[in-house]
Specification:
The complex is a heterodimer of chains A (287) and B (337). The model of chain A has no long low-confidence stretch (mean pLDDT 89). In chain A, strands 1-2 form a two-stranded antiparallel ribbon. Chain A has one domain: ABC transporter involved in vitamin B12 uptake, BtuC, CATH 1.10.3470. Helices cover 73% and strands 3% of the residues of chain A. Chain A has 287 residues and is mainly alpha-helical. Chain B is mainly α. Chain B has a domain of 213 residues: Orthogonal Bundle (ABC transporter involved in vitamin B12 uptake, BtuC), CATH 1.10.3470. Helices cover 74% and strands 3% of the residues of chain B. Chain B contains 16 helices and 4 strands. In chain B, the strands form 2 sheets. Chain B has a two-stranded antiparallel ribbon with strand order 1-4. In chain B, α4 crosses α5 and α4 runs parallel beside α6. The longest helix of chain B has 28 residues. The two termini of chain B are 23 Å apart. The chains are: A mainly alpha (287), B mainly alpha (337). The interface between A and B is large, with 40 and 41 residues.
Chain lengths: 287, 337
């Protein structure tokens, strides 16, 4: 029974990893950009949530109403102000610039908030649980998983049923032709990054409610998200959710075998999948 | 008309470089202990920067996980000396060989990832190495291990001589890495590398085996990075997973050094390291602000002058201290209409 429980908890945890990954998957799909600062932006969102929740004395989930638009605005500004200048055939400039951003954000957070672990207080929600057939499901992990499914479903719908999604797909297919058809590439890229960081905002607040965080943990969140994207297959959002769940289950089962194996198990499953299915489980596009 | 690689600047640089090396070899007689340590550290950073530059600037393999090999080299060195009882001077090259051997399966796996995803893949590998090191009780697990005094004393009895030997080893490794990078770039393989860097498609159509060329560079770089790692922890005398696999120390600083100095040139990493240490010695007390400033400068350089400082100097003067490019001399001046 405890193994079934581990798989269940892992699946729910995978929802959070899919949230980490969704923003990464989105910007890669639209503009082939890999944002190394993604993990640090998640942590930044968690600190933003903390500042707002404590400052206004509101529940962290209510703080989302401010965190999400602020992160989106930051994403748009970041893309238009800095990242658009690095877009081109050469992969080095975007990689090194986002790497520089990662170091800057991490150290700025260290200066502003110190290295002490922080946590978002969500009150009763943290301990509430549902029991069914001998299995116990925390309300919070369930809420995270449901949010993750809703966010990915929403992104999927946006991609295939809205004008914005059409603009994203057009730019993804052929940037120059999309530009000729009257789409402003710089603006479309800005919107993609805004949407990516809006999702990051949700991910950051949930991260902060679930565990304690400090400025240095961004890198490993980026890695979890990245593993989910690769396992799921590039450009496939539902695949990303599946990838997140696989990493989550691997970590939970590994942790069940021995607590010190938790992180290693996730990485090993990723490397094994990379060895057998280099393009991921459900690939839709070429890297 | 003839085609040459050397120029007056490169010949002068060779002579001056030789004089500097001779002066440095004699440093234990003219420099204090603190200066020796600082210089040793500078040499090791020049080595790391040169190796990362060979990967990213020439082979197009942008790795953000080279700390995997610094840490692996350090741990392999500790294991060989402490557990296997192998003499220090033999354990260092063995650590390098072990690093290269480990890099073979790693490369086979992560070369499946393209471009930027390759970069994060290298990071995953470094994480896996760190987690494994933290779970190896024989090497101290999560809290790390110290090199015992008995082992250290096999290097030399007096402390001054030990410090001098560590300094010479660092100097030797720097000359080895810069020299190896220079020779690789001048060889047939270097030409292939440059062709790949400039245009991968065209290089492939000329019959260059891109995968194999990159694989060769990755494995050689991993081996030499492991050697540097072994030396770093010989100087520190203590190793722990967090210090050995530190992304900041062994990758972030190194990337900033190369970007600011000039990526894709042999001179850039050396110039970048000198600037980095000059700044560090004057701004070290600023701590985190120093790192933020370094990040801002690196981003500004990447956006405004992607070839770095040495690229700017070369564009102005045409100077090249390491003769790599070919130039035509003795052409009759073109007649003007």
């Amino acid at each position: 029974m405890e193994w079934v429980n581990a798989v269940l908890q892992g699946t729910l945890l995978g929802g959070l990893y899919a949230l980490f990954a969704a923003g990464l998957s989105l910007i890669f799909g639209v503009m082939r950009l890999v944002n190394i600062a993604h993990g640090d932006l998640i942590v930044l969102a968690a600190y933003l949530g903390l500042t707002i929740a404590v400052g206004l004395g509101i529940h962290p989930l209510l703080a989302l109403a401010i965190v999400v638009p602020v992160m989106a605005a930051l994403g748009y500004a970041l893309q238009r102000g800095i990242l658009n200048r690095t877009m081109g055939d050469d992969i080095l400039p975007p990689l090194l610039v986002t790497f520089g951003l990662s170091v800057i954000i991490q150290n700025a957070l260290l200066m502003g908030f110190s290295a002490d672990p922080q946590k978002l207080q969500a009150g009763d929600l943290e301990t509430a649980s549902l029991t069914a057939g001998g299995l116990t499901i925390g309300v919070l992990p369930f809420l995270m998983f449901a949010t993750s499914v809703a966010v990915i479903g929403g992104l999927q719908w946006m991609f295939y049923h809205t004008a914005l999604g059409r603009a994203f797909r057009a730019t993804s297919d052929r940037q120059d032709v999309a530009q000729l058809m009257g789409l402003n590439r710089a603006h479309v890229f800005g919107l993609a990054m805004a949407l990516s960081l809006a999702v990051t905002g949700i991910a950051g607040v949930f991260l902060g409610i679930r565990t304690s965080f400090d400025p240095s943990i961004g890198g490993s969140r980026l890695i979890f998200g990245f593993e989910a994207v690769i396992i799921g297959g590039l450009g496939n959002l539902w695949g990303t959710l599946a990838g997140g769940v696989i990493i989550g289950i691997a970590q939970a089962v590994g942790g069940q075998i021995h607590p010190s194996l938790q992180l290693l198990a996730g990485h090993i499953v990723f490397l094994v999948i990379l060895a057998v299915r280099p393009r991921g489980l459900f690939p839709k596009m070429e890297g | 008309m003839q085609v040459t690689r050397s120029s007056p600047a490169s010949r002068a640089a060779a002579v001056i470089g030789l004089l500097i090396v001779i002066g440095l070899v004699a440093a234990p007689w003219w420099a204090g202990r603190a200066d020796l340590r600082l210089m040793g550290e500078i040499f090791l950073y020049v080595s790391l920067a040169t190796l990362w530059n060979l990967l990213a600037g020439y082979a197009g393999l942008v790795s953000v996980g080279q700390q995997a090999y610094v840490g692996f080299g350090g741990y392999a060195f500790f294991a060989l000396t402490m557990l296997a009882g192998i003499p220090i001077l033999l354990a260092l090259p063995l650590a390098a060989v072990a690093g290269a051997l480990v890099a073979i399966p790693v490369a086979t796996l992560i070369f499946r990832l393209r471009g930027a995803y390759f970069a994060i893949g290298t990071w995953v590998v470094a994480e896996v190495f760190r987690l494994i090191a933290a779970q190896t009780p024989a090497l101290g697990g999560g809290s790390g291990a110290s090199l015992s005094a008995d082992i250290v004393k096999t290097l030399a009895d007096s402390r001054d001589l030990r410090e001098a030997i560590a300094f010479w080893l660092a100097l030797g490794v720097m000359i080895l890495t810069v020299g190896a990078a220079f020779l690789i770039l001048r060889s047939r393989r270097g030409l292939a590398l440059t062709a790949i860097r400039d245009n991968e498609l065209a290089a492939r159509s000329l019959g260059i085996d891109i995968w194999r060329t990159k694989f060769f560079v990755y494995v050689v770089t991993a081996g030499m990075t492991s050697l540097v790692g072994g030396l770093i922890f010989l100087q520190k005398l203590r190793i722990s997973p967090d210090a050995a696999f530190s992304a900041n120390d062994w990758t972030a600083f190194v990337i900033f050094i190369v970007v600011i100095g000039g990526i894709g040139t042999l001179e850039g990493p050396i110039l970048g390291t000198l600037i980095f240490f000059a700044l560090r010695e004057t701004m070290a007390e600023l701590g985190t602000i120093y790192l933020i400033a370094l990040g801002v400068v690196a981003i500004a350089v990447m956006l405004k002058a992607p070839t770095g400082l040495w690229g700017l100097i070369r564009a102005r003067t045409g100077a090249e201290l390491f003769p790599l490019s070919r130039r035509v001399t003795g052409l009759a001046p073109m007649s003007r209409k």
